């Protein structure tokens, strides 16, 4: 409690900016130059910070000043505070100009067609001047951006984090999966196909340790097959679809909503493969303790209403 009171009364943003510069440049001299202060002033500011936290924040080594476990944690929150203040200033500017504010959303690809897009359409009807940024990536990468304050919320999975308890998670829907192939390289099968029937194919799959990759490995194992060594790994939906359309005997595992979207435009063909693993789920992920903007709260309301929650 004493540390909190000390920080509230003595901590300055200039000190936090110095920490970020030190992390980037590994040199007190260079960090001081970036902050347009003398090296002695930078040294004094760092000493004040270390006194407040009652711990050294950097290890001095031949390669420069390297943040230790305490320093890394303080720098993480320094970046978060800086990002939040930047977004606050941007929001105030947007509101003054009549643009209505900003919303940054991260979403896994399977949630975009049936969940994110309809909710965004409804949001635009209610708040036509809101500025929206959408990031499509893996849950793990987007959680990192959520931690840094670059995203307001993520439609994905908090369980992939090493510390899932630091997030609020509300389940939205299941994510059924389909096996797909390039449209012009395949014909409509007459009956069901087993995973074993695709043993001659090369898989385009998500990177290792990602839920979609782990599910494919489980399906192959249940079929008595090893994961092939010649897989093509990508987290990009566009790259996956482009590869499937260009290469013969390439197959992939995609969320069914995504697969159906591309199948409608005759870019992919969904193969009648019965998967034995249960569908994965996804939901709304936000940072515990964070204060959501009115735009983010309204968007979450629309997501929950669409999910019937």
Automatic annotation (TrEMBL):
Domain HTH lysR-type: from-to ranges: 11-68
Keyword Transcription among UniProt keywords: yes
Keywords attached to this entry: DNA-binding, Transcription, Transcription regulation
One GO cellular component term noted in the UniProt record for this chain: cytosol
Pfam families documented for this protein: HTH_1, LysR_substrate
GO MF term set: DNA binding; DNA-binding transcription factor activity
InterPro entries in the record: HTH-type_LysR_regulators, LysR_HTH_N, LysR_subst-bd, WH-like_DNA-bd_sf, WH_DNA-bd_sf
Statement: the UniProt record of this protein carries the keyword 4Fe-4S: no
Origin: domain of life: Bacteria
Family per record: Belongs to the LysR transcriptional regulatory family.
Name of the protein this chain belongs to: LysR family transcriptional regulator
Originating species: Caballeronia ptereochthonis
Lineage, top ranks: Bacteria, Pseudomonadati, Pseudomonadota, Betaproteobacteria, Burkholderiales
